[in-house]
Amino acid sequence: MGCIFITWVINRFMRLNVATSSATKYPVTFSRKSSFNYRFRKRDRMLFYGRKLMRKVTSAVINGDKKQKLRKRDRVFRFASKFLRPQKKDSTARPIRRPPDAFLEADTSLPVSPKSVQLLNMLKSIRILGHFEIPFFLDVCKHIETKRFAADQFVFKDGEIHDCIYIVESGRLSLFIKDEKFDFEVKSVGRGDSLYCSLNILDMIKNQARPMKNVFAKATEESVVLQLKSSVFNDIFDKYPESWTRTVQIILLRFQRITLATLYRYFGFTSELSKTSIRAVSKLSPLQEQSCKDFREIKSENEGATPEDCTASENTFPTFGVSTTDDDSDIFQVAIEELAKLFGMKEASFLVDKVKVEKFEPGIMIVRQGSNELQLFYVVSGMLELLLESQEDPDVLLPISIVQTGDVIGGLSVLSGEPSFFAVRTRSFCQLAIVERKSLYEIISEYPRVVVNVASTAVESYSDFVKEFDMAVEWEICESGKALYKLQNEQADALYVVLSGRLRSVLTREPGTREVLNEHGRGDVVGLVEIWTLRRRSTSVIAIRDTELCKIYATLMNFIKNKHPQVLSNIIRLLGHCIIEQQQQTVSAVHREPLAHVSNLNTIAVLAVSDEVPLTGFTVELWNALNSITPTELFSSYTLQDMLGPTALDKVNEYQIITWLNQQEDGNSIVLYQCDVELTTFTSLCIRRADCILIVANGEQEPMVGEIEKELENLTVRAQKELILLWHDSTDRPRRTAEWLDLHGWVSSHYHVRFRDRVFKQRNPRRMLRYKERIIRRCDNRHTDIARLARALTSTSIGIVFGGGGARGAAHVGIIKALKDHGIPVDIVAGVSIGAFVGGMYCLDSDVPKLIMCAKQAFKEAASFWARLFDLTYPVSALFTGKALNRLLKSVFNDVEIEDLWIPYFNVTTDITSSEMRVHRSGMLLHE
């Protein structure tokens, strides 16, 4: 230590002598106030004296006009700045990649079309008609009438038969629901919107028009309305018989996915959905009479009871057990005859091989809520009960209604194709006639009107309140890029429930300054806070892809909470969740970087840059990793053709394929779509339905942009894009990642994935997808790169932040080893000071033994006595120059870029000039 002190004194003395001699040779006059000895950092000393010299030179130039003074001052300033300003070295740090304007802005272009085409577009906006071809619409247009309504004139009154579809050409119509004391305006439609009751259309097709009670509509201003009577559908459907099934499917699909699901999931309605919990049977069917007769005979023989006991027993507990003397064939014959009457068929013989009769003991769960095993049940004898899961405790089943002998259940799910809305359990010994979904559609293909009879039976048991809500709520489709509401601070008039698709909330802080606040996926509620608190819109919302929405007007919310105050607890719980989520988003948006907003992803499209990329192998591995976290399904053009037939992707089957894919997305947390190598119909479908697009490339090839990726720019895709670079597992570290990123424009993030050589081998993709469960390895390795990618896509990533502290940074290595020993993976690393150094070494090579060896060597060199001795300087701002540390960092990282690290990494520094935090996610890992 003595040697070190003597060396420092000599060094200090020599530097002071140099400074004294310089001051003597070049004297400078200081004022009294400047006698104070300033202390500077070395890099600021020359800049300070240079600026001071320029001020004195400027003050000396006092002659000439002002223009000449300014010119001379500028010349002096430019000349001095070349020598006195510190020259910064070229930095490889790249500017932060920000999303393009189309990512945050709505598409405001409006197609210009003739009036006839506009009429067709308005008709297609009615969701129950939106799937038909042009010839169908042309026939519909022949029956359209134009009606004019004055302000406050009734469109239809309370108690009248509402048998029309109204399309507003100009003006505005309002729908009202009568309560005990008030008339509530629950819906208001303007130009291009429609007003109709889809359930009434079923009645009109069946020629059983019913008046609407407590519901009326009138024009709030002078309006021109296009009127289409639903009775014309009988003639049109006879001309287009295949339209029967499609229309009924869409009506029931709307009823289950929007009306029932919204009332149950978001408002908490259960028993209110049914017309009555136990309804009286006014007239017995022939089968019931036969069962009652058998019951009388058995009861009379055993107990001597009178026949009237059967009727009394029927009214209290209507369970009709079938006598042991009955032949099963007789029961089967009566069952198919009853079903034939229900279906509207003249001959029951067609049902012989389509129906089966089974017996169930009491307490048997026949159908579970959410089940995809869809069947139609006819109660031959006994009693069933419909159940719904409690919102507070999913293990608790709440009874909704009773299903008695002669009733039919299951028609709603069988026709709509949606999972079962109710759970069904036997309440007594039951005999049920069962029709499978496939068999029912075989019947419908021969007798098209069967679908209307089954649909009417399926919806008639629901309460009037459900039908009123169905008429007041709207089923909207927001096309990709269009704004749900684009004017921030506009008055909120409705909330939206995302049924499928994805929305993006964009916050505008200043004119031209936008940032993504949040993204909303399936099941999310948008706009509830503004509706409930009577505030204006706080953000603008655009559709990332085609999004299916349930629109609930604020006036409808007021009607529901006045008629059913018990829903307030559910609304308050949902409101609290939305407020907390909004506050967290606002706080996190302060320091948010423009990274991927990966949360609640439902659909992921996987796209290859070229045909040399092993896309099928990568997709199968990703499916395996995702499936270990959450239920995931994988589809490609091969699997769709194998499952749905070779013509599944034809234009005529577009409605069926979209409906089927919607069901798959509802049944799985994540759906993977493997795109074709070329821009085919299936590839376009995948891109349109994707919440996130994975662009897969072989990192060992030359950086390039794929042909399909070029087409994405023309499609104005707003889904977030991720770049995935594949490497052989023998690769020491990635290279040229920045070039890939520069070529691909804006991507949310990028990932490096290592695979064994077997994944890169070209195999039959159809065979790999068909037998993917056998190909995948069964071991669960959470430390692989593909597992890290799967956790990033499911928002289950694990991050670690290493702090500073000099020598205490050596403990970070022990933490990494402990995490690895306990099987805890690390998916993203951040660090500051020595923590940034250790974190960078770990991301460069995640092999723990190598990390320990590298860290030991680095800390040994940092603690070297001679290295610190020769790095000493006069202690004006520091004891050491830092050159020794820079040499150490250069020996470890050399020319490594942050983008070339295996694990996502960033470090944090402080900008002492502006006193702000800086986050470094790109550029050279080492800056000298």
From TrEMBL:
What's a single GO BP term from this record? Answer: lipid catabolic process
Q: List where in the cell it is found.
A: Membrane
Alphabetical GO CC annotations of the entry are: endoplasmic reticulum; membrane
- One family from Pfam that matches here is Patatin
Cyclic nucleotide-binding domain: from which residue to which, for each copy? 128-195, 339-444, 488-552
Q: What's a single GO MF annotation on this record?
A: phosphatidylcholine lysophospholipase activity
**InterPro entries referenced in this protein's UniProt entry, alphabetically:** Acyl_Trfase/lysoPLipase, cNMP-bd_dom, cNMP-bd_dom_sf, LysoPLipase_patatin_CS, NTE, NTE1_P-loop_dom, PNPLA_dom, RmlC-like_jellyroll
PANTHER family in UniProt: NEUROPATHY TARGET ESTERASE SWS, NEUROPATHY TARGET ESTERASE/SWISS CHEESE D.MELANOGASTER
This one is known as Neuropathy target esterase
Please name the source species: Trichinella nativa
List the lineage, top down.
Eukaryota, Metazoa, Ecdysozoa, Nematoda, Enoplea
Gene name of the encoded protein = Pnpla6
